[in-house]
Amino acid sequence: MNLPTLAADAPLSPSSIQDRKAEHLRICLDDKVQCQEVTTGLEYYQFSHCALPELDFEEIDLSTSFLGQVLGAPLLISSMTGGTKTAQLINQRLAAIAQHYGIAMGVGSQRVAVENPAVTDTFAVRSIAPSIPLFANLGAVQLNYNYGLPECQRAIDDLAANALILHLNPLQECIQSRGDTNFRHLLPKIEALCAGLPVPVIVKEVGNGISAATAQKLIDVGVAAIDVAGAGGTSWAKVESERAEDQRQRRLGQTFAEWGIPTAECIVDVRSQLPDLALIASGGLRNGLDAAKALALGADLVGMAYPFLKAAHESETALSDLMAILLAELQMVLFCTGHRNLADFRAAQPLLRRQPH
């Protein structure tokens, strides 16, 4: 996994979208855009400890499958970035670690590459990660702004992707300067994409959560999987407030900084209503214990962005260390609850609810 040294960032072209990409990346590396008042809700759950697991730690098996593909662990490097030189290197590092451990990876919104093909290489990591599930990514709202099947197919082809993520971000678009806020009649357009694309469509939020009612509507039109991306992690309202161009934008970002459905609540709500859904949990997950709680609550896959972003920005070594720790934490939860593999772990439902103080 020897990749180039991280250099100072610079947009690859003067386009406003690329400038915004670079700014988002810089701001997201700052702790102050994390939720402070709203939490994931995962802290209200704890595991029932097994003092005699009758297992050898070395036999703990984290392998699983998602949308028909086998994974070494139930982890997704969530959609983050692309479009700049720094983003390119981060994506390369993330792809290398994902390939090494056999986990899934998404990329940031590819709108910038659709509109400026010169930056396509900042997303193209298939040569580094030839066998993992890779997820392309576009904003669902762009379907109301002259995007359709050709643009989505191009994003998939550019990445050689196994699925397309459509992200929902109504709050962010309302706060963002010149945001795209026409979310009318998106469901039939998403339905047309699901019918017309050769790969599954995944729908995710960006950190404000998806309810069971919304998930049901999306599944009814052919969406293959939902990533709830709940509140408790990076607040895109705070991110947009940090890059505000005027007082109105800054005020909106501050007012709605803690808006959203906590991640744990999303998982429980969606899983209770859609027991057979392919479900991804993300939003504020920071370690393997968080990931294990999300899995025990009903997620099939757990996504993380911020921990991977910080480590990948720092160095390959930091990223490798993070990955090793995350896997060890997951294994320890299975071991200390007396389960050899994820199927047994999920079936046992080993969580105890702890009421907030």
From TrEMBL:
Q: Give binding positions for substrate.
A: R20, K21, S109, Q110, R111, Q172
Cellular component terms, GO, for this chain's entry?
Answer: cytoplasm
What organism is this sequence from?
Petrachloros mirabilis ULC683
Task: List required co-factors.
Answer: Mg(2+); FMN; NADPH
Q: Which SUPFAM superfamilies match?
A: FMN-linked oxidoreductases
Binding of Mg(2+) occurs at E173
Q: Where, per UniProt, does this protein localize?
A: Cytoplasm
Q: What is this protein called?
A: Isopentenyl-diphosphate delta-isomerase
